[in-house]
Design a protein that fits this description.
416 residues; alpha/beta; 5-stranded mixed β-barrel; 5-stranded parallel sheet; 15 strands
């Protein structure tokens, strides 16, 4: 292949397979169109990662002074190298196209309806659409996404839904999720400062070292309360943009604004619209995930989250019905997720939580162990139960923190 900076028609070139869209290209196509450079690597031949707002591909040329962030007109043959498509550049020159408008159009969610009928969800729809659009924009603009979620079953399911949806969208347009998508659990029930420091170090060590942008941070099943302010303010001061999807009581709400709203451009929480916490984060994240990528569906997830978080609302029953599974089976998966999270602590459990969703034997083994653990904890605490009769009312107390077996699942607050 001969590389050149200026294009002149050659009768030897075959344009019968010329295309102007990177989405769905195959080896043998000849691409002609406007793209944005979203990545560049060298030495050796220059390898660009380029996008037209609908798809992306690696583009190679012997040498080039163009850099990431520039918009160019590109022409070249599409071939396959080591199992990946690669565009071999014949022509690259400046373009005056408004690429921001292209990205904005591609970022608009294709699917905006919910998976179930729900007045609660409909009331929150504008928040869903805005956040889904922002998440899609990050994907199409090759901005990494960092998912930070609570480490219980509801939080894990929230993180998995967003991770799987973003991953599928990235793969559908030719991006590599391994360099663009990160997920980590938070042990604390808020976005604590230690997690902020971990995210900042991860960004510096892995993401920025590869010449990428700072990631968009999405906080799930955490982020709405006054306890979150320090963490969110701190990471914002380091140049990060934060999006929050939570269902816990923000405590402070004035004119549909919470204490964290000054520091986050997008915030989804049912309390903002006068609702309660019964629409759990797993439900919210699942519906958001469906809007991020229109082909994503995993109906068991919101059902497991609703059962695990004790959400006694019609939506939970509707999700259970839609999953096609029994409540008992879904509850056992939630228990398994919680047990794994307890043992993994700060590890995201990549690939392991996915096994819980498909491997019934794995779930059964964990639930048998959890049952033994609960029995052990009860036997250690019940001897210390103190009961008294107050005017005909039996009043019992027990100090779970003091008398449960330490460092053993379940945690004290889950024994009874």
């Amino acid at each position: 292949m001969k590389f050149k900076k200026d294009y002149k028609f050659s009768p030897n070139k075959n344009f019968s397979n010329s295309v102007g869209n990177l989405k769905g290209i195959v080896a043998g196509d000849y691409y002609i169109g406007e793209v944005k450079i979203i990545g560049k690597s060298q030495p050796g031949p220059v390898i660009f990662v380029v996008t037209d707002g609908q798809g992306s591909v690696d583009a190679v040329i012997k040498d080039s002074q163009y850099n990431a962030g520039e918009v160019v007109h590109l022409e070249g043959q599409v071939n396959e190298r080591a199992g990946r498509l690669q565009l071999e550049i014949d022509v690259i020159k400046p373009s005056k196209i408004d690429f921001n408008a292209v990205i904005e159009k591609s970022s608009e969610p294709i699917r905006k309806e919910f998976s179930i009928k729900s007045d609660r969800l409909e009331k929150l729809k504008p928040y869903f659409v805005k956040i889904a659009k922002r998440m899609r924009k990050a994907v199409f603009d090759n901005q990494p996404i960092l998912i930070r979620h609570h480490a219980d079953a509801d939080g894990i399911i929230s993180g998995l839904a967003i991770e799987h949806s973003c991953k599928a969208l990235m793969e559908s347009i030719g991006l590599n999720p391994d360099y663009n998508l990160y997920r980590s659990p938070s042990r604390a029930p808020f976005y604590e400062i230690a997690d902020v420091f971990r995210d900042a170090v991860l960004t510096k060590r892995i993401i920025e070292s590869h010449g990428q942008k700072k990631p968009l941070v999405i906080v799930l099943d955490n982020g709405s309360t006054p306890e979150d302010i320090l963490g969110i303010r701190t990471i914002k001061s380091l140049g990060f943009e934060v999006v929050v999807v939570d269902h816990h009581n923000p405590v402070i709400i004035e004119n549909k604004k919470t204490a964290v709203c000054p520091y986050v451009p997008l915030h989804l929480n049912p309390y903002i619209e006068g609702l309660d916490s019964k629409t759990c984060a797993g439900m919210l994240a699942y519906e958001l995930a469906r809007m991020i990528y229109e082909k994503y569906d995993s109906p068991m997830l919101p059902a497991i989250a609703g059962i695990s978080d004790h959400c006694e609302i019609q939506e939970t029953e509707d999700y259970i019905k839609k999953s096609g599974k029994s409540r008992k089976f879904l509850e056992s998966i939630g228990v398994a997720i919680d047990f794994i999270s307890y043992n993994l602590k700060f590890d995201g459990g990549r690939g392991l939580f996915e096994q819980v969703l498909v491997n019934e034997e794995f779930v059964t083994i964990i639930n048998e162990e959890v049952k033994k653990g609960v029995e052990t904890q009860l036997q250690s605490t019940l001897p210390y139960l103190r009961t008294q009769d107050i005017d005909g009312i039996v009043f019992s107390t027990i100090d779970l923190e003091k008398y449960t077996v330490r460092f053993k699942y379940p945690a004290p607050w889950k024994v009874l």
